[in-house]
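Exercise 7. Predict the structure of 4-hydroxy-tetrahydrodipicolinate reductase from Yoonia phaeophyticola.
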Amino acid sequence: MSDIPGIVITGASGRMGQMLIKSVLASDKCRLVGALVRDGHDWQGLDIGVAMGGQPVDVPVTSDPLEAFAKAQAVIDFTTPAATVDFAGLAAQARAVHVIGTTGLTDNDLKAINAAARHAVIVRAGNMSLGVNLLVKLTKQVAAALDEDFDIEVIESHHNQKVDAPSGTALMLGEAAAEGRGVSLNDVSDSGRNGITGARKKGDIGFSAIRGGDIVGEHDVLFAGHGERIVLRHMATDRALFAGGAVKAALWGQDKRPGEYDMLDVLGL
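Solution. The predicted structure, encoded as tokens:
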């Protein structure tokens, strides 16, 4: 078993962390070597299998990333921006592939992650699913084919516990649309409509966020012209697809040169 990559899951007690742990344990291409939680968490010191309500798997839960990462060939990280930036530096020191699904990252966070990528492989994506990454590619192609007579709106829906908006996936789609049009998203993004806003500015890329219930993730890219509309849509119904994509990214990165990659690279799109 030691010849297959060992993976550490950060945020192990969270909904996504537990899904990732289950995906790694179910795979015959990798092994779980660490489960990381914040210091003082109730799970600290327990076997992760027992902590999750199952059988022991001989992997103790720890709050020490240095200890965990030293045994790993990959780290899968769906946590918070501050934690992810810290983990990026530590994973780079350990020369472990760092798969980042964390959203809400600032420009300064991205600069720190990019610096870490000079020393190790980082795969970062707002969404790890095959379908969403195909949608990103299609969005860029459609945006390139249509002129500014078509307004672009990215509409995203998520569960009521999501803390950031627009979602990481929505921003991926907005970036793709902007690239297709040959503009910077920062120059054309519109996500703050409230009150008397005036007419829509031609060429803007709009964002609308819906939060409610237990919606896993739904994303529409609307191209609205005069007399016609084109809608590209992806609907996720099971978080397991994100976990499977993250594990795939961790394995893909094992023989790659240091640098920052995304899921389009992993999927060869």
